[in-house]
Every structure is written in structure tokens, then in C-alpha cells.
Amino acid sequence: MWGIRKGAVLHSAIAKAFEYIAWVFYSYFFIRYVVGAIQDERGFYHILQFILISGGFFIIVALYYSYIEGAYIPLAGTIIYQKLYRKLYEKAGNVELRCFEDSSFYNRYTLAVDGASDKLILVIQNFFGIFTGGIAAIVVFSTMFMIDKFVVLFIVFPIVGNFLFGYLYHKAEYERDKAMAPYKRRIDYVNRVMYLADYSKEMRLSKVFHILKNKYEEALQGIIKTADQYALKINVPTWIRNYLTFTVMFEGVLMYGAYRAIVGKSIDLAELAVLSSTMVSASWILIRFTESLMECMKQGLFVENLRTFLEYEEKLPEDYDGIMPASEISSIEFRNVSFSYKEDCKIIHNLSFYIEGNSRVALVGHNGAGKTTIIKLLFRLYDPDEGEILVNGINIKEYNLKAYRSLFAAAFQDYKIFALSIRENVLMRESSEEDDEKVVDALIKAGVYDKIKSLPKGLDTIMTKEFDEEGVLLSGGEFQKIVVARAFAKNAPIKVFDEPSSALDPIAECDLYDSIMKESIDKTMIFISHRLSSVRNADMVFMLENGTILEQGTHKELMALNGSYADMYHKQAKNYLAVEDLQEVIA
Ligand SMILES: Nc1ncnc2c1ncn2[C@@H]1O[C@H](COP(=O)(O)OP(=O)(O)OP(=O)(O)O)[C@@H](O)[C@H]1O
Question: Domain residues for 18?
Fold first, then answer.
């Protein structure tokens, strides 16, 4: 907090100090002086003057307090919110991809993000509440002790009430919130699915809504069950705390004081008035003090979680600094690489291959063979469990990660279109009209420029209707072409295309592969394709199965081998062209 907004820390401290000073002053000095002055018959104007001066002081304190609580802290809260969330998102953006496949990471993340800035402010305010409240409690109890030694015994009730039972219910509340976090995440997921347009078609054409509705209700039941489980653990200590703090303390001190003043006549009226008012203040100060303590502990647990999240040491930090890679690519090599997403489930098995710089390489194989995983490893989205990956003869772990990733221009299979302009969707960075030539060229190569040109706002057209009434929705193939244009537009020495034509018609597919081949003449290019006709011009084809290379060579070599690749090719050609005699096609 000090790092983000010093003023908020200082004003929280001053406001808390004033709050308690005003309390102690009113309950002890003010009442004692006024009742004493009446008893000593000091005169109306003298007392009025004292009341007015004290009133002025109270008004100033109250105005300052309201300004801090009502205006300054909420404003500071927005700045804290902005800076803290930036830190949170930076962290989430910097952790390795694997974290997003770990549900305990998600739970920690959700708990950290949930009202993080409010909790941080609460901890600071309550921290000063403990400090100044502790001093105020000592002053008030000493005053009571001076009037009557035995009356302080009544303090035991609010102390036990607040410290023991207050602690129990705060702890139970934290545990309940923690137990509810996975259910809340499930509810958030269903809310997201219902809200996002991406899911709307499937939702309308299937009965998946019912499954989601059931999941939602299950999660809701989970929340209700958790609330039920913790109801007694929270309510009983709350009731006992209130009973001991208010009823026993208030009534006890009042009856005891009245007995001493009326029956025993051992304290006078001023002392009885001071006793009653300090008793009320003492109770409140104690409540506030323990509330601050408990709140600090409770929010402290959230803040601790936030801190653990922010201090999580990335195993593969996105901002990893290392040597800068050369922009010319001479080789890419996988050396005995093994990898698994989860323990005991190897996806890549002792894989080794070598790619010459400036060559065009195709990865082919059945679904789930591990092609995309190889690309993810090459992008260093994951690190191998065994073996090493080398680019230009250097282990990729030694490179500055951002600079290393900038070597690649990629079109992903599971692409995402952003609710931004077409220009921004192609460049994937901030852009201006000066970039138009590059964007247009990329869109032409991807075979979608004619369509974009026909749109009234051209490159400025916003994709999707999320924010803009005039936003456009394109066909699946057109969307995919825009994604492919990303790889054309980025000036990078290695181009990667993961199933770039899965949504294209045969003519568009053919044109696209022509463009890709032309584009990659002086570049290293890796592409994944299920359409084997598209790999005929590759310099090297790797046929994968179960995370290892089954066959490798040029298309011709693999056909001559007459193994798995040739078999797959025959089957595809047969189905695709619906011809019996393929000799002509193969030739
Ligand atoms: N994030 C992940 N967590 C766990 N397992 C995964 C993950 N991503 C992929 N897998 C598993 O790894 C295996 C290989 O997946 P990969 O995407 O590399 O295959 P692929 O050859 O590209 O398949 P396709 O041709 O269908 O795209 C699959 O069995 C898949 O279930």
C-alpha cells in the first residue's frame, strides 16, 4: 500500500487517531468537565463556551473524517484498484501456461482477485485501528480503574467476547469463503458461457444448456450447503460475543455504578456519569479494537493469499531475461525431448529431429499425435521434462524469452478473434494507418482482402458485435484467413501455421498453400496439416505417432517407403477425389 499510495496510509492513520481521540475526550474529559462544572456552579456561559469549543473540535474532526472516508479513501481505492489489478494481471500474464491448467492455481487467483483492493485498504485501516484503539482502551480503562478498581473486572466479558468468540467467527467466515471458492468459480464459468457469444450457437442447437444449468444449480447447492455447514460456527460465536460485550458489560456496569452511587454513596454524580459514558466508550473501543484485530487477521489471510499469488516464483517467467537470439535461423533441433502435461502421461517420447534453416517442414499425423504440443514446446509455452530444444545450436532456455518468441509468426489452430479492428486483429499490436500497406498485403496473401475491401469501414471495421453495432461477423473461413494474415503480416524469421486451412474450401485452401509456400521462400516455415496434398512441396515431412517420429523424408521419399504416410495419403486422396485409380494423382 505504501508503494502504491502513501497518502492513503497516512490519512488512514490520522483519521483513526482522531476517531479515538474524540471518543476518549468525549467520554471522559467532556462529561467529567460539564457535570463537574454544573456541580461547582461555574455559570451557564462558562459551560456553554466549553461546549461550543469542544463542539467546534468535534465538527472539524467529523468533517475531516467524512472527507477521508467518503471521498479520499474511495478515490485512493480506485487508484489502488488500478495499480493492484495491473500487478495481478501482470503476474497472471507472466506465469507459465501450466498454471492455467491447475485448478488450485485458479482458486488462488480467484481468491486474490476477489475484492483485493478493498481488502488491502481494510487491512491498513484496521492496522491503525489496532494501534490507536489499543492506546484508547488503556486510557479509558485506567479512567474507570481510577473511579473504581472493581468496575474494570467487567472488562473481562467484552475481552473474552471479542477476542475468543470474535476470533472464532472471523476464522469460520474465512474458512467458509475458502470452501465456497471452487463453487463460485463454477458459477462464474456458467455465467461466462451464458454471456459470451462464442457459445451461443451450441447453446441454441443442443441441450447443453440443461447440463450447464444443472452444474450451476449443483454449485449453488454447494454454496448453500457450505453456508449451512458454517452457519452455527459463525452465528453462535457472534451471538455470544454480542451478549458478553453489550448486555453483560452495559447492564453490569450500570447496575454496579448505580448501587455505588445511590446505596453505597461512595461515588458522586459526576463519577457515575463518567463511569457510564466511559463504559459505553470502553465497550465500543474494545469492539472496534478487536474488530480491527480480527478484520486484520481475516483480511490478512486474503492478503497473504494475494501476496503468495504475487510472489509465486514463475518456473517459466514470461519476462525471463537471457541472451538475444540472432535474427537469421540456421537450425532448429529437438534432442531426445520428452514431455507430459500431467505426471505419468507422456505425450512426447524421446523425440529428436533437425530442421535446416530456411526450409519448409510439415508435421503430419493422426489426431492427438502430438503435433501442436511440439509447436507449444518450440514456442517455449512449456519446457520439456527431458531433453533439449536448440535454435541456432543454443538451448532455447538461454534466450531472452520475449525476444525468442518474437522470432515466430504464428497462426494457431485454436485461434481467437478479438473485438478490435481488422487492422489490430492482423497486426496484434497498436497500429496506425501507416501500417495499412503491410496489413493489406497480408490480407491479399491470405485471400480475404476482397471481402474486407467491400466493408464500409475497411480495415477499421470492428470484428464481432461485442462493442460496436456496426461490428462484423465473418464466416468461419474468413475469420481463419484473418488469423493466417497475422502470420503473413509479422516480420519474423520463422513462420508457423497450425492447421491454417481447416475451415477453407478446396480452392481457397490451394491458393492459401501457394501463398504460404511463396511467403516462406527465404524463411524457416513449419506447418501442421491434415491435408496431405498440401505437404507435397515441403522440404521435409515428419510423420508423427504417439509423440514420436514414425517416418521422415520428402513427400516422394515417404510415398516410395509405402508406410503409414503413403497409406494415409492414399486414403485421403481416395475420399477427397473419389477416384479408384490413384497412380495418376500420386505421380
Ligand atoms: N493442455 C493440455 N493438458 C493435458 N493434455 C493435453 C493438453 N493439450 C493437449 N493434450 C493432450 O496431448 C495429446 C497431443 O495433443 P496435440 O494437440 O499435440 O495433438 P495434435 O497432434 O496436434 O492433434 P490434432 O491433429 O487433433 O490437432 C492429446 O492426447 C491431448 O489430449
Answer: 6-310
